[in-house]
Amino acid sequence: MIVCVCNRISDKEIVRQAHAGMGFDDIQLELGVATCCGRCEDFARDLVAQCRASRPVAALRDAGRPCAGVMQAA
Ligand code: FES
After folding, report:
1. Number of domains in the chain
2. Which domain holds residue 50?
3. To 5 degrees, how large is the angle CA 66–CA 71–CA 74?
4. 3 close to ligand 1 (CB < 6 Angstrom)
5. DSSP code at position 40
6. Residue 71 has pLDDT above 80, yes or no
7. In percent, how much of the chain has pLDDT > 90?
C-alpha cells in the first residue's frame, strides 16, 4: 500500500527501514516520506512506532544504548 502519495513510498519500504532500527526522522531523510504535503506523516509515524514496539531490540540500538543481545549476535 502506498503511504506517501506525493513520493510514492509504500508501507513495506517504511516497515523495512523501521525494522532495521531507523526512527521516523531517519526514514524521512532516507525515503522522503512526509516531505511534501505532509498528509501521510501521522500514518507514517504510527507505522514506525508500531514496528519499534514489536522490535524493542532495534529500538534500543537506535537509541544508542548498548544491547547485549545484538552485540553477542554480531
Ligand atoms: S502524501 Fe506524503 S508528503 Fe504528501
Report:
1. 1
2. 2-73
3. 145
4. no
5. T
6. no
7. 69
